[in-house]
């Protein structure tokens, strides 16, 4: 039991890193399976380019959209946003653009991994590049006259001229160089972005740690209380149905209350709240609204506040 607790604590401590690592491994593994089992270059001057690009880019696009789909912040931003009485709480302008940029960066991990691994494997690039007329002119310059027509056959090893078939090594080298360059650019960008967001953090390192602990506990307690409250309400309604009696009064939050605590988090240096629920509870006595006030800002490093969701098998 103690060992299980230690493993659980390690998981909670490094949950984000483990999640990103698992996503990367699954994406790399999926690309490997696709390239060896599904992908078969047609070796046709008409189909090589579109076929190779589809396998290189379409799965990356699907993974990018899936990243949006699985993000809690996406649904916090969109759920109820088009309702007439809820439009005022939707983030617009530069705040909305900043949140979308953060969502895009988080969602880009899997597609960039796919493209990088695919380029290192070189199969998709070899097929696509061999069908490019522009690249054929560059690579076939000073070679066999039939090079341009035979180049699409290179990925299948069917080029008749040996010097044309040797271009497969050039295509593979180009693909792998592009793959390593993409990896280097992503790492450098992540390093710069992380450093800048950390430098611009309005709170200290230890306060961030405390903040994350608070959010974990808040979500855990919220789920327990919500389950208990929902159970009591359901029992009372079913009891009244079968006994043909009137239900006891049971106070539940209003639609407006749910909307307010479901909004995207904004930081205010004057009033530091650790979540929208924390903000709602402390402002409820002063006002019936916790709409964005002067001084509120969307801080990239505090994006984890909106990413905290109640874990449940029925969650969307």
Strand and helix layout:
Blueprint: H1 2-13, H2 15-38, H3 48-69, H4 72-78, H5 93-107, H6 109-121, H7 123-130, H8 133-139, H9 147-150, H10 162-165, H11 167-199, H12 205-243, H13 255-261, H14 276-283, H15 304-307
What is the C-alpha radius of gyration, as a whole number of Å? 27 Å
Profile the largest sheet: none
Helix content: 55-70%
Low-pLDDT segments: 311-316
* Percent of sequence in beta strands: under 5%
Q: State the separation between the terminal residues, measured CA to CA.
A: 32 Å
Mean pLDDT: 83
Question: What global shape is seen?
Answer: elongated
User: Count of helical segments?
Assistant: 15
- Structural class computed from helices and strand pairing: mainly alpha
User: H/E element string?
Assistant: HHHHHHHHHHHHHHH
Count of beta strands: 0
Overview of the molecule:
The protein is mainly α and 316 residues long. The protein has 15 helices and no strands. It has helices at 2-13, 15-38, 48-69, 72-78, 93-107, 109-121, 123-130, 133-139, 147-150, 162-165, 167-199, 205-243, 255-261, 276-283, 304-307. Helix 7 (123-130) crosses helix 11. It is elongated, with a radius of gyration of 27 Å.
């Amino acid at each position: 039991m103690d060992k299980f607790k230690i493993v659980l604590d390690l998981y909670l401590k490094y949950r984000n890193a483990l999640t990103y690592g698992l996503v990367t491994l699954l994406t790399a593994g999926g690309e490997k399976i696709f390239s060896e089992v599904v992908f078969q270059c047609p070796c046709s001057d008409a189909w090589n380019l579109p076929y190779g690009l589809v396998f290189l880019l379409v799965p990356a696009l699907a993974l990018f959209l899936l990243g949006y789909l699985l993000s809690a912040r996406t649904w916090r931003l969109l759920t109820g946003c088009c309702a007439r009485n809820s439009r005022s709480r939707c983030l617009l302008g530069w705040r909305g653009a900043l949140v979308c940029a953060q969502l895009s960066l988080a969602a880009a991990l899997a597609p960039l991994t796919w493209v990088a691994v695919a380029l290192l494997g070189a199969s998709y690039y070899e097929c696509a590049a061999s069908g490019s007329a522009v690249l054929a002119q560059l690579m076939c310059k000073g070679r066999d006259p039939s090079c341009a027509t035979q180049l699409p056959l290179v990925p299948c090893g069917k080029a008749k001229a040996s010097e044309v078939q040797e271009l497969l090594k050039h295509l593979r080298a180009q693909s792998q160089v592009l793959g390593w360059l993409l990896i280097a650019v992503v790492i450098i960008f992540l390093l710069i972005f992380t450093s800048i967001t950390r430098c611009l953090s309005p709170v200290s390192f230890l306060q961030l740690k405390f903040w994350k602990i608070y959010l974990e506990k808040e979500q855990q307690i919220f789920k327990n209380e919500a389950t208990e409250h929902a159970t009591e309400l359901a029992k009372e309604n079913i009891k009244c149905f079968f006994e043909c009696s009137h239900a006891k009064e049971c106070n539940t939050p209003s639609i407006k209350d749910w909307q307010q605590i479901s909004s995207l988090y904004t930081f205010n240096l004057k009033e530091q709240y650790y979540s929208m629920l924390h903000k709602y509870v402390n402002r409820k006595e002063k006002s019936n609204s916790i709409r964005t006030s002067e001084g509120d800002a969307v801080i990239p490093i505090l994006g984890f506040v909106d990413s905290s969701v109640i874990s449940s098998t029925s969650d969307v």
